[in-house]
Specification:
Elements: H1 10-22, E1 27-28, H2 30-37, H3 41-49, E2 60-62, E3 65-69, H4 70-81, H5 89-93, E4 99-100, H6 102-109, H7 115-123, E5 133-134, E6 138-141, H8 142-151, E7 181-182, H9 184-190, H10 196-204, E8 228-229, H11 230-240, E9 251-252, H12 254-261, H13 266-274, E10 286-289, E11 298-303, H14 304-315
Antiparallel strand pairs: 1-3, 2-3, 4-6, 5-6, 7-8, 9-11, 10-11
Length: 322
Amino acid sequence: MSRSVRARPARDWLKGLWVVMSKAVRLVDTAQIVDEFTTSKPRVSAWSNDPDSGFPPVHHTEGRKKFWEYDKVAAFFASRTNAARTLPASVLEADQDKLLTKREASQLLGYKTTTVIDGYRRNRPGYFPEPDEDVDKPLWRRGTIVAWAKSRPGKGRRTSHPAKPATPLPDVDVDGDPDELLGTAHAAALLGYSSRASFSSALYQGLIPQLPDPDVPFTPGRGAKKLWKRSTLVAAARKRGTLPRPDEQDLVGAAQAAQILGYTDSTSFTSALYHGHLPDLTEPDAFEMRQGSDGPPQQRRWSRARVEELARRRTQAPDTEG
């Protein structure tokens, strides 16, 4: 005698299928999208409700909470990042190697004052390009600014409500257990970022070459975390210049290097460096990080012994800079 088997409801079957898929697909909700991609909940809602926005469809819902596939959301923001901006032909046809001051770069971008660029550099590390020259004052090649203007991300959130303050980053003991695993908040603090979101954005865009892949194999999924050993993060911070090197050398800046090498001032030294007359000093020995908007955040530094050795060699060789 055969037994009748009760058919499994389609709803239960679909739920089981979703559970299996979720193990292989990283899902994010609105709050996670806002945190990682520095946007706002109203914008996510507007994109999701607009069939022409290009925003990915909802993967599934739990009550009133919506979930999307992380990879598709990331691709959406990447496409916005790569959307070209239109610049006047006069700008595109001008000398792309000409160095621009911060005020000139602001004018090229249509900003009325330099405070916009100051804010980018102070609050969003990795968002605005580093100066091509940064000795006495930051200078960018016109081509650097044009390339950024064509590919920069959107203008960000617009809301009449004050933004929710970011969670303070932790204080990190650089002398702690070198093998202890630390997450993105600790990484952001050590590498000079103002928030975990700005660090995650820079990491996704490949703007932190000093930081290797996580020490723990990372498998995308809900609740997955990127983890690095403390020693890995400290080493990356030293390379990036946000932490001093343990073997602190007698370092000199552009003004002192100019004096040692016989230049009239740091500007003439920088010009010689830019034009390739000082190939031995193209790569600095370290960077000194500066906080705030007064001047560039990174100042190049060279070993005094290295500069003095070059000066000795130059006195024994004919002048070739003419």
